[in-house]
Structures are given as C-alpha cells and as structure tokens.
Design goal:
Layout (H helix, E strand, L loop, with lengths): L16 H16 L6 H8 L3 H7 L3 H10 L7 H4 L6 H7 L11 H8 L6 H24 L4 H22 L4 H15 L2 H13 L1
Helix pairs in contact: 1-2, 4-8, 6-8, 7-8, 8-9, 9-10
C-alpha cells in the first residue's frame, strides 16, 4: 500500500472512510459553516487522504448534498409519529425545540449557497416542503378547515423562531408556540374544538 492510500495519520483507507468523511462534515459544517470548511480540513478531521475523499465524493458540492440528505430523513418522526399525542398536541410538539439546538442545517445551507440549482439547495427545498406537508396532514387529522394553509403557517413559524432564536440568542419558540396555538384553534371548526376539549377533560 502506498502512502497515497493512507490518511494523514497513516490510517488505512477502508469501508469506514466514507462515514468518517460524512461525520466530519456534520461536525465542521454545523460548527463553522459550509463555506469556511475546506476539503483539506475535512480530510484531516476524517483521517483520510484527499485521494480517498475524492474516490467517495466527486467534490465538495456532492459532500454537502449528502450531508443534508442524512438529516432527519423521516421528517420529524419523533413528533409526527407519536401515538400518545392527539393531532393538535403533535402540531404543538413541533415547537418544543430546545433553544440550544443549532440552526436548521437546511436554512444554514440555503443562506450560504447562492446557487438555487445546487443539489443541496434542492434537498433543502424538498425537506421544507415535506415538513409543511406533514404539518398539513396532522392539521387535517385535527379537523382543520384548511389544513394546507395551517401547515404553511406553522412551518413559517417554526423557521422564523429558529432564525430569531439564533440571531437574538434568546428562545423564540415559546412565543411561536403560543401563536401556533391560536392559529390551530382558529383553524379548527368549533365542533372539532369542542370534541378536543372533551377529550382533554376526560383524560
């Protein structure tokens, strides 16, 4: 084996190299941003040579796209797939996000990458549409008169709270959750709201 087939510390190239590269990108992209992270730094953190890195990824653009693809493929399954919560409770649970949570990687990537045709930007658009769709599906379960509109409204609130929390270094999600509760209750016909209140009282 030649020196080119080893990483910076002599670590042998193997089947784990790709995962080490992705793991390094997940850490560095979130800590310091995509544009400030170069391939040399990524290779050093992953303990692979650049030759090995380019055997797994044709370039940084492909790595950025894979980095985003790995995030939350089930679209907030920890919220939307909880059988112990009512649909309304699931909608509100989407706002139960710790203020220390890093900025949404899809928002961060879209801000840094200026090419709308970049594959990572497409992943960001697809993910954001998927979140709004899941919110709309849950709103439909809750009995909302216009679930698509409510889904878009709640998606906008979540992203706005995430950005405001980051910019102000102060938790904006409680305020967003309070606004969401008003939107949800206004969107649900009175009969559905009455049924929900009876369920809450009986539980």
């Amino acid at each position: 084996m030649t020196e080119l087939e080893k990483g910076p510390t002599g670590r042998r190239r193997g089947r784990g190299a790709r995962e080490r590269i992705i793991s390094a990108s997940q850490q560095l992209f979130r800590e310091q941003g995509i544009n400030r992270t170069g391939m040399d730094q990524l290779c050093a953190a992953a303990e692979v040579s650049k030759r090995t890195a380019y055997q797994h990824f044709t370039g940084k653009d492909e790595l950025v796209a894979e980095y985003l693809r790995r995030f939350d493929p089930s679209v907030l399954s920890g919220v939307f797939d909880r059988p112990d919560l009512t649909p309304r409770e699931r909608l509100l649970a989407a706002f139960d996000i710790p203020p220390t949570t890093p900025l949404c990687p899809y928002i961060a990537a879209a801000v840094e990458l200026h090419d709308p045709q970049h594959p990572a930007c497409q992943y960001a658009r697809d993910y954001k549409k998927a979140v709004a769709a899941r919110l709309a599906d849950t709103a439909r379960e809750a009995g909302a008169a216009d679930p698509e509109q409510l889904g878009e409204q709640l998606a906008l609130l979540i992203d706005g709270a995430a950005a405001r929390t980051r910019v102000l270094n102060a938790d904006a999600f409680p305020t967003a959750a309070a606004i969401a509760a008003v939107l949800i209750d206004n969107a649900i016909p009175s009969t559905a709201s009455d049924d929900r209140r009876r369920e809450e009282v009986s539980s």
